[in-house]
Design a protein that fits this description.
Elements: E1 2-7, H1 10-22, E2 27-32, E3 38-40, E4 43-45, H2 47-57, H3 74-81, H4 93-107, H5 112-123, E5 128-131, E6 138-145, E7 148-153, H6 154-160, E8 169-173, H7 184-189, E9 193-196, H8 205-209, H9 214-220, E10 225-228, E11 231-232, E12 235-236, H10 241-247, H11 254-261, E13 268-271, H12 279-284, E14 288-291, H13 303-320
Parallel strand pairs: 1-2, 1-9, 2-5, 9-10, 10-13, 13-14
Antiparallel strand pairs: 3-4, 6-7, 6-8, 11-12
Bound molecules: ligand FO1.
Ligand FO1 binds near residues 47, 50 and 155.
């Protein structure tokens, strides 16, 4: 079975670990969000690609869900000693090697998709990880600080400000001009099922869908498209998805997110058991809906994520019938 998964950061990566356990013989292609990418110290950092690669490759810092395990921060403190910031983004020594190799290969002319493939040679994530595009896309967030409106990089909003101020707008800068990376449209066209894991519907999955051609390819693939709600009980399971959902006028609810994606895209939607009351509203939007446990209580073992993945695949078969 060929499965295509649109993935963002932590929630997507943990779901993928469960999907691999639930469908060990499946051929899984992950289309990774690159809107989180940030250039720091002359290096290109790809947080969502690295979170998938490290999580599935066994190098992730499990508590954080980002960065490497057994990390040290000598380089970061030496940079700070030179007064070179930003200090609010925690790049570790081991992680720096990934960004150095990536930036070196990009500088030699390799596209991000080839670089990602090369980095995955080391990590062997057990899935094919393709960036949504090889072109530069960076999500910026419009905020009002001290009475002044300005656009800041997503990472500054997310990490430095901790999404403590309202996001007035979320803009994937460069998305309109971006082209799907090699292999993305082919993977969607040959998929047996497409999954939207519980990643952020605006800044992760929304950004991937903003690359011209990707949303259309999924809508026209003619195979089941099934998503899992990142919102449980009207609150995001993790992160601050409600902040960016508000920016696009979507309430932080399991049903509202399904409606946001729309029945033109989604065939099935899983909500958590606490949101069983939302099933009827989702079904009336023309999207098949089931209420199942969606909290990945045991990220390490991944058995909860495997159960969620099995439910998603089962719903896909139900939709296909
Ligand atoms: N998230 C944080 O909350 N604090 C950090 O200091 C931080 C550093 C960091 C370094 C490399 C990397 O790949 C990711 C990092 N993240 C950090 C996570 C990052 O903000 C992700 O983009 C979000 O978690 C959304 O996916």
């Amino acid at each position: 079975m060929r499965i295509v998964v649109l993935a963002g950061g932590i929630g997507g990566a943990r779901f993928l670990r469960g999907l691999k356990a639930a469908a060990p013989d499946a051929d899984i292609t992950v289309i990774g969000n690159t809107g989180d990418d940030i250039h720091l110290f002359g290096l290109k950092v790809c947080p969502d690609l690295d979170t998938v690669m490290y999580t599935l490759g066994g190098g992730i810092n499990e508590e954080q869900g980002w960065g490497r395990t057994d990390e040290t921060f000598q380089v970061k403190s030496e940079l700070a000693a030179y007064g070179v910031g930003p200090e609010w983004f925690g790049l570790g020594d081991r992680d720096f090697a990934t960004h150095i190799v990536r930036t070196q290969m990009l500088g030699a002319g390799y596209p991000l998709s080839a670089v990602t493939e090369a980095l995955c040679d080391r990590w062997q994530p057990g899935v094919r990880l393709i960036p949504m595009t090889d072109d530069r896309v960076e999500t910026h967030v419009a905020v009002e600080v001290d009475g002044e409106q300005k656009a800041i990089h997503f990472q500054e909003y997310w990490v430095r400000l901790r999404a403590s101020v309202d996001a007035l707008a979320v803009v994937p800068v460069g998305a309109e001009q971006a082209k799907p990376a090699p292999g993305v449209l082919e993977a969607i066209a040959t998929a047996d099922v497409v999954l939207f894991p519980p990643s952020n519907p605006v800044v992760s999955i929304g950004t991937i869908l903003a690359v011209p051609g990707i949303r259309e390819a999924i809508a026209e693939a003619g195979v089941p498209v099934v998503g899992l709600s990142p919102i449980v009980g009207d609150a995001p399971v993790r992160g601050m998805a409600d902040k960016v959902l508000a920016a696009v006028g979507v309430e932080a609810g399991a049903a509202a997110v399904a409606e946001h994606y729309g029945s033109g895209l989604l065939d099935g939607w899983l909500v958590d058991t606490v949101d069983a009351g939302a099933v009827e509203r989702v079904e009336s939007a023309g999207i098949r809906c089931r209420a199942v446990p969606l909290i990945m209580t045991d990220p390490e073992e991944g058995t909860a994520a495997a159960a969620m993945a099995r439910e998603a695949l089962a719903l896909a078969e139900e939709v296909r019938a």
